[in-house]
Design brief:
CATH class: Mainly Beta
Radius of gyration: 18 Å
Distance between the termini: 50 Å
Number of helices: 1
CATH topology: OB fold (Dihydrolipoamide Acetyltransferase, E2P)
Number of domains: 1
CATH architecture: Beta Barrel
Strand content: over 45%
Structural class: mainly beta
Order of helices and strands: EEEEHEEEE
Number of strands: 8
């Protein structure tokens, strides 16, 4: 039997601040949307832009980190898998939603403080969440 692969990697900007809630068993889950834009020139030289929105779900420790550190407008790298959810609403209409279940998140661009002010990331003092290890050369 052959194995399949379900892996997604995106880089984009958060559409709004993450929302965190807890399952009845107490497990944290955080949801947020990420806009990924692309641009291209058509054969006639006209410039085109297109934005695709992705719903992202993070669970457990990653959910808590996303809620604590991510803010609307921030650029992020998300890695995970696609998952399709299906449900019926109160009127019996069927709905489908495709979302990314995140397994990794990396903050990109400028860091923002709790007052939503931008700060340049200083690689000498940045934390591991931004993918920069403090004191990269310990000697």
């Amino acid at each position: 039997m052959s194995r399949g692969l379900n892996k997604v990697q995106i880089i984009g900007h958060l559409g709004k601040d993450p929302e965190m809630r807890y399952t009845p068993s107490g497990k944290p889950v955080t949801t947020f949307s990420v806009a990924v834009s692309r641009s291209w020139n058509s054969a006639d030289g006209e410039r085109h832009n297109e934005t695709e929105w992705f719903n992202v779900v993070a669970w457990g420790n990653l959910a808590e980190i996303c809620k604590q550190y991510l803010l609307k407008g921030q650029q992020v790298y998300i890695e995970g898998r696609l998952q399709t959810r299906r449900w019926d609403d109160k009127e019996g209409a069927k709905h489908t939603s495709v979302e990314i279940v995140a397994s990794e998140m990396m903050m990109l661009g400028e860091r923002r403080d709790s007052n939503n002010h931008s700060q340049e990331v200083d690689s000498a003092s940045a934390d591991p969440i931004n993918g920069v290890v403090e004191d990269e050369f310990p000697f």
